[in-house]
TrEMBL record:
<dbReference type="InterPro" id="IPR050706">
    <property type="entry name" value="Cyclic-di-GMP_PDE-like"/>
</dbReference>
<feature type="domain" description="EAL">
    <location>
        <begin position="189"/>
        <end position="436"/>
    </location>
</feature>
<dbReference type="InterPro" id="IPR035919">
    <property type="entry name" value="EAL_sf"/>
</dbReference>
<protein>
    <submittedName>
        <fullName>EAL domain-containing protein (Putative c-di-GMP-specific phosphodiesterase class I)</fullName>
    </submittedName>
</protein>
<dbReference type="Pfam" id="PF00563">
    <property type="entry name" value="EAL"/>
</dbReference>
<dbReference type="InterPro" id="IPR001633">
    <property type="entry name" value="EAL_dom"/>
</dbReference>
Length: 436
């Protein structure tokens, strides 16, 4: 009997042995054996096209309790209504081109996939989109189900493909996003919280430096310090690290660590050039920020405040931050300078510039890319240069990758530039820079 059992199992395995054939023999089998998931295909194409892809999970609180009041078919109708309603809202918004697909991978809410072009804007872009979309969705649910007391919990994660398949990377990101949304004990959320806290406690981050050059003389005038997480981990890339820090309410602690690391690096290598540091308004508007900065200046007395430029992203909101404007005034009194980052990316328009009157305006790569073949972009550049002239701001163009782009900038008298054309981010060392 046992022999018959194993013979049966062997025949079954033999029947499916084509699944384990070498790659060169698979061509003899018809295409119908290749299964394709349209979600996976969409994600793969977006990643292959150089985009970031984020999995966003919207968890509906009390859904299990609500489901007890409904028949199974009514619950399915509610979920479908939620899915269709969300899709309708986003497709009639400014974010319709970002949406890859809305899917019901997650049984207690929605999962949707976004494709985002610029790595630097990703976290802010998602949060601004959610601030726009979610009130509309909540209103829609409240009208259709007035007796359903609910809230939406949200989590997101970027799909990171290293040696994994797209399917594995998608699954990992989706599970992580669910954990961030639900924030349940014994989930990945707690693990992530502990992981980020450990990074902060152990100061396990590295700063790279990218030069900012004078376009006329090609001399290095400043550096932008860029953060990397623990080497060889999923949090090495700043996109993952900072997005999780924001969702874990640890962004202030992480950025304060970046500031201390920057002061350490400047002191250790004896850097005398200007240094640009990217900070969220959340940190710059924190009432603890100035006392913490004072403490660091006392500890690193050789740091010259007039050499430090705090970059504020134009895509991040400065509204409703009680201490933000007062802190900016105090920073200027101490001779620190303020830059507005990502100018021209098209989100918060010129509001941040008019509010801050920055010392430096950094023009986003979206304006610079292919500016040599796009007259509209050159016109945008000229408009931004006029604004910079009115505010008496120095101009830095970001993301220059081609000689032709640099030539257009020189023709328009742009002051400074940075990008791969000049150098990739590298390790700042005493008297020299080693570029990767």
């Amino acid at each position: 009997m046992q022999s018959d059992f194993w013979n049966t199992q062997f025949r079954r395995l033999k029947k499916w042995n084509k699944l384990f054939l070498p790659q060169h023999k698979l061509k003899y089998y018809p295409p119908k054996f290749v299964l394709r998931d349209p979600v996976l295909e969409g994600v793969y194409r977006a990643i292959a096209g150089g985009m970031q892809v984020a999995v966003v999970v919207i968890s509906v609180s009390n859904l299990r309790e609500f489901s007890q009041q409904l028949e199974q078919n009514q619950l399915e109708e509610f979920k479908q209504e939620l899915k269709v309603g969300f899709k309708h809202i986003i497709e009639n918004s400014n974010y319709k081109n970002d949406l890859l697909v809305v899917h019901d991978y997650y049984s207690e809410g929605l999962t949707f996939f976004l494709k985002i072009n610029d790595e630097k804007q990703s976290v802010i872009h998602i949060e601004k989109m959610l601030r726009t979309i979610m009130p509309l969705l909540e209103s829609k649910v409240a009208i259709n189900h007035p007796y359903f007391q609910h809230t939406f919990d949200i989590g997101y994660m970027f799909i990171e493909r290293n040696n994994n398949t797209t399917a594995e990377a998608l699954h990992t990101a989706q599970q992580h996003a669910v954990a961030m949304a639900e924030k349940r004990v014994h989930t990945r959320y707690i693990e992530t919280l502990i992981e980020i806290r450990e990074i902060i406690q152990k100061q396990d981050i590295t700063l790279l430096a990218q030069p900012i050059v004078d376009l006329a003389t090609k001399q290095i005038k400043a550096w932008e310090f860029l953060t990397r997480g623990p080497n060889g981990t999923g949090l090495e890339k700043p996109l993952q690290l900072f997005s999780l820090a924001r969702q874990s309410n640890l962004i202030y602690d992480l950025e304060l660590l970046v500031l201390e690391k920057a002061f350490q690096l400047i002191s250790r290598v004896g850097c005398t050039d200007d240094v640009f540091l990217n900070f969220t308004p959340i940190t710059l508007g924190n009432k603890r920020f100035l006392p913490a900065l004072e403490s660091l200046l006392f500890k690193y007395s050789e740091i010259e405040p007039n050499k430090i430029i705090f970059e504020v992203t134009e895509r991040d909101s400065i509204e409703g931050l009680t201490f933000f404007h007062d802190n900016i005034k105090q920073l200027r009194k101490k001779s620190f300078r303020i830059a507005v980052d990502d100018t021209g990316a098209g989100y918060s328009s010129l509001h941040t510039i008019s509010e801050l009157m920055p010392d430096i305006i950094k023009i986003d790569r979206s304006v610079i890319q292919d500016i040599d073949t796009n007259r509209v972009k050159e016109s945008m550049l000229k408009g931004l240069l006029l604004i910079a002239k009115e505010t008496k701001s120095l101009v830095v163009a970001e993301g220059i990758e081609k000689k032709e782009e640099a030539e257009v900038l020189i023709k328009n008298d742009v002051d400074l530039a940075q990008g791969y054309l000049f150098a990739k981010p590298g390790t700042l060392e005493k008297d020299r820079v080693v570029f990767k």
